[in-house]
Amino acid sequence: MKHLCVAHRGFSGIAPENTLAAFRLALEQSFVHWIELDVQVSKDGVPVVIHDFTLERTTNGTGRIKDSDWKELQQLDAGSWKNAECLGEKIPTLAQVLDLCHGRVSLNIELKTTGDMYPGLEKAVLREIMMREMQNEVVLTSFDRSALRRTKELNPEIRTGLIIDARPDDLAKQLEKLQCSFLSIGYPHLDRYLLRDLTGRGITVMAWTVDDCRIMRRLSALHPDLMICTNWPDRWEQAFLLSKRRMWHYIRKLIRFR
């Protein structure tokens, strides 16, 4: 299948998002080719994997990530909000996730920042990646264009991508100006023309976040190289692998009865 499956914050439909439990579950699915995750920095400079700028929704803590040091963050429960079985699941560091995924899947690492919220974020993330020689296994993405520019200044060779939930007329020019070879875009903005134009320019496109099998199949008809990001990778399997198996079963039956 060319429509690569991207597990959004891990297998977050079942496990608590952005935790090692969610990443391990995603890795158990043979058809998951990429995992998407979010990175911020603790008060003492440790890159941590969590989506919200504040702790309340996905942990039993309160306040902003940037105001807590790593020792405080690692004491929090980041699992029981999802289900009782995940009680005690922790906020992971980027280092832990990189070690877990190295050589197994590619990673779409979103730099969660805005403006000057996290001075040094890009440098800290790149340091962890380069220490493990994983630069060919990752793409660094962000809504924040300044973060993408800083990333390229620090390492011109690292792959970067813009995240956008819109469709400006000059999108291709914006990507070129940012030196981005990857686009993460809200799926309602996609059509065949845009995908043909961007892929023709060497841009890899990922649609987010798609949890409906029918929408997955509709998007797949737009272009064979489109990546599909989902909270439920098993639905990707239902949309593509299972339908493909049914097709081959039908073909074998036809051959057998000739």
Automatic annotation (TrEMBL):
Start and end residues of each GP-PDE domain: 3-240
Coiled coil: none
PANTHER family cross-referenced by the UniProt entry: GLYCEROPHOSPHODIESTER PHOSPHODIESTERASE, GLYCEROPHOSPHORYL DIESTER PHOSPHODIESTERASE
Protein name: Glycerophosphodiester phosphodiesterase
Native organism taxonomy: Bacteria, Bacillati, Bacillota, Bacilli, Bacillales
